[in-house]
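Consider one such protein record:
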Amino acid sequence: MAGCERRTDRGFVTAESALVLPVLVMVATALIWGLLVVAAQIQCVDAARAGARAAARQDPPDAVVALARETAPSGATVTVSREAEQVRVVVVARPPVLRGLPFELREEAVAAVEETAGAPTRAEGT
C-alpha cells in the first residue's frame, strides 16, 4: 500500500511554464516599448532645444523647422512661434511602435531672442 500513496509531480513544470512564459514575454515587450517611448521623448527634448537655439539666433523659420525635424522622431510636427523677446518651439510626436495609442509626446523650449551683429539696439535706434 505504500506504493499507492506515492504522488508524482511530473507535468507540473510544463504547465507552470506554459502559464508563466506568456506573462514574461508581455512584461519584456512592455519594458522595451517603454524604453522606446523614453528615447523618443528625449529626441523631442533635443529637437525643441535645438530649434529654440536656432530661432533665438534669428535663423529663418524654415531652417529652424528643418533643424528641429532632423533631431525629432520621424513623423513629428514642429511649431515655431515668436513673441516680443522670446521664441517658442513645440515638438509633438506619436509614440513609436504602438501609434494607435491615444497619447502623444510633446516638448516645448523657449529661448530669449539674441540681437544680430550690426543691428541697432533699442537705445541706438531711438
User: Anything to note?
Assistant: The CA atoms of residues 13 and 90 lie 53 Å apart.
